[in-house]
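Q: Hi! Curious about what Large ribosomal subunit protein uL22 looks like structurally. Here's the sequence.
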Amino acid sequence: MGKQARERRLPENEAQAKTRLIRVSPQKLNLVAQLIRGKAVATALADLQFSRKRIAKDVKKTLESAIANAENNHSLDVDDLVVAEAHVGKALVMKRFSPRARGRVGRIEKPFSNLTIVVRQVRETA
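A: Let's find out. The predicted structure is below.
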């Protein structure tokens, strides 16, 4: 008598992984996400491994999670996976205040981001 399973939002040849509340601005995270969009999974992992951006480590972790979801949950072949989408979304912004000269205050914003990576199995025709 459990709940009925709801239908899958993604097609059968896709899998996704989400990471919420990453402590980086969406603009900086999008620079790294652009680096891997449309690439094969092995190439994307290599690019993230040698990227000099601090946030590349978290993006790599999310991509590895999407690959694991594709392999274990949806029985997709890892060698044929391509990064179909890499969405960057805006999350909350913490506001902090810092004292400035003459009794004024400076507002410091600490933004957070959400990241969604979708991998798709593409069969190579030879």
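A: A fun detail: The CA atoms of residues 90 and 113 lie 5 Å apart.
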